[in-house]
Amino acid sequence: MALLLRRGGTKGVRLINELRPQKRAGFLGIDLTSKEAKPSACLGLDNELNLIYHGLLNRDSDILQIVNRYQFDLIAIDAPLSLPYGLCCLEEGCSCQPISEAKGRNCERELAKLGIPCYFTTKKSIIKAMVYRGIRLKTKLESEGYKVIEVYPCASKFRLFGKNIPKKTTPAGLVFLKQRICQLLPNITPDVDGFKHDMCDAAIAAYTAFLCSQGKTELCGEPEEGTICLPFLDRVT
Q1: Dmax over Cα atoms in the chain, in whole Å?
Q2: Cβ–Cβ under 8 Å, residues 77 and 205
Q3: For 7-40, what is each residue's pLDDT tens digit?
Q4: Listed residue (65, 66, 20, 64) closest to 46, CA to CA
Q5: 219 bridge partner residues
Q6: Domains, the chain, with CATH or none
Q7: What is the pLDDT of residues 131-178, one digit of tens each?
Q8: Nearest to residue 151, comparing CAs of 226, 79, 233?
Q9: Are 7 and 13 in contact (CB under 8 A)?
């Protein structure tokens, strides 16, 4: 189903190419890390898919500052943004238990059925800190009136480019990603050469948010538990 839908001088914060600040922008993609000590790649597009911001931000407060500066219409976060039914946390010492005997959230199980690998949100998850951070950031953004969706760039890339994609951490994989991003977003081509794989994922997240605004996405999972926004199957050749 279609989804209708500087801190200047701060230690540890690196801002890159903040372009043409304006009152209203379109879409922000965030490749969220587990801890604020490791910067998260963030990339913003306007409604015409021009690059208006990209940077590496450490703290949640820095991300919020950029969001408030640009007033993004839709924010796409690459991280689990909810817990499985029945869980109040991911602590093994807590008595809460998932309602389903199957592993993870329904959206993650659906991805697995589609042949798309992902991390499952469980009490044994190795990305527990990222899950907590993602939920916290989403809650804060929504409390300030912003629309937030969960995306998974790996799944978006499979939908857009097919499954024969070289690993993004290899030189060949990075070249592949840059080439495909330039096809999707030709207006940002001059800046893509300097991207690392995390900024490429942020670009894919922002583009997925754009597709969502155009009614060109579907939801994987159940809205009451948590969904992942996926592009319709439309590969770039």
Answers
A1: 52
A2: yes
A3: 333 333 333 344 444 455 799 999 999 999 999 9
A4: 20
A5: 229
A6: 14-231 (3.30.420.10)
A7: 999 999 999 999 999 999 999 999 999 999 998 888 898 999 999 999
A8: 79
A9: yes
